[in-house]
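Standup notes
- HV: blocked on the assembly model, inputs below
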Amino acid sequence: MDYELTRRVLAALHEHAVAYKVFGAVALNLHGLARATEDLDIFIAPDAENIARLRAALHSVFRDPSIDEITAEDLLGDYPAVQYVPPSGDFHIDILTRLGELFDYASLDTETVDLSGTPVTVVTPRMLYEMKRNTVRAKDRGDAEALARRFKLEGT
Amino acid sequence: MPVRRFRDVSEMEDTLWRERGPALFDAIRRAWEFAAKTVELRFPPGVYKHRTIEEANAQTERWAQANFEAFHARRRGRR
């Protein structure tokens, strides 16, 4: 994944006032564990105006008409998970409005990270730990254990 | 740098954590650049819609498998 391009996407989300929360591997990176990843995971506030702002933000970074296929009808309806692969094809942005029955936008605790001058809203280490520890994927459970050791979250 | 000993390989990763700041962001940049140069991941551009996170994860796994096969095809081609 391209660091500068990712920073530009995050800056565009901020500049277009998108209500979003970064989770997943990029969040793990921003909490201190530099590690390669292939995607930027974001939860977005589930309302149509916010999704319109998300499209505007993405259009400001990528020259790609397929961005208009990211719709409120889908994200607020039957498709709460949308993956967007930009024309460069070297990473993807995973956009969620719900994650099973356990997590939604409002339930995620966040903090703000200053990424080279760009304010980034990212779930807290404890929140990331909670999201990863109950997953079926082995690498997520490993990340949860690493977060627990680093931030002394055992037994929570 | 002195020799460091670990009782478990998971402890080795604990030494990779950094405090937030320029050194962390530089480490992220270098880790991502190194991965991009060595693995060359490719995903078909477009928008993919999923009813569940499991569906999204399955799509990610299909891309991972395709990238794995492409990586090894490139290696075979270089031999």
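- HV (later): unblocked. The mean pLDDT of chain A is 93. Chain A touches chain B through 50 residues (CB under 8 Å).
- Next: hand off to the docking folks.
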